[in-house]
């Protein structure tokens, strides 16, 4: 279920401040969003996979905390990130 290196590097290149930026809030939120989307598709097929469902809930909570922090610190970049990722702004 983890992202492969090429896909991760592509996300870092698109959302990072430079090509080696893996720790910024933008990159972390984008990586979590990609993993959440993949797990959601997995759970549509395997409805009884409760272990993955718990992992999904943890990822959603982690992304929510990061988004709350990012919205508080850099509102303009937060709005741009939410629009680029196509996720709701419900924080």
TrEMBL record:
Q: Which Gene3D superfamilies match?
A: 6.10.250.3130, S15/NS1, RNA-binding (1.10.287.10)
Q: Which PROSITE patterns match?
A: RIBOSOMAL_S15 (PS00362)
CDD domains recorded: Ribosomal_S15p_S13e
One Pfam match, given by its short name, reads: Ribosomal_S15
List the GO terms this entry assigns under cellular component, sorted alphabetically.
Answer: ribosome
Instruction: Name the keywords, alphabetized.
Output: Ribonucleoprotein, Ribosomal protein, RNA-binding, rRNA-binding
Q: Does the keyword Hydrolase apply?
A: no
Q: Which InterPro entries match?
A: Ribosomal_uS15 (IPR000589), Ribosomal_uS15_bac-type (IPR005290), uS15_NS1_RNA-bd_sf (IPR009068)
The family assignment reads:
Belongs to the universal ribosomal protein uS15 family.
Instruction: Describe its assembly.
Output: Part of the 30S ribosomal subunit. Forms a bridge to the 50S subunit in the 70S ribosome, contacting the 23S rRNA.
Q: Which HAMAP family match?
A: Ribosomal_uS15_B (MF_01343_B)
Q: What does this protein do?
A: Forms an intersubunit bridge (bridge B4) with the 23S rRNA of the 50S subunit in the ribosome.
Q: What is the protein's given name?
A: Small ribosomal subunit protein uS15
Gene name, per UniProt, is rpsO
């Amino acid at each position: 279920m983890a992202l492969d290196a090429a896909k991760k590097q592509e996300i870092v290149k698109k959302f990072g401040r430079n090509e080696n930026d893996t720790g910024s809030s933008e990159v972390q939120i984008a990586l979590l969003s990609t993993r959440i989307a993949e797990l959601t598709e997995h759970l549509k097929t395997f409805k009884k996979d409760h272990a993955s469902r718990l992992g999904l809930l943890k990822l959603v909570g982690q992304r929510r905390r990061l988004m709350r922090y990012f919205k508080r610190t850099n509102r303009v970049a937060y709005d741009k990130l939410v629009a680029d990722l196509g996720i709701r702004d419900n924080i």
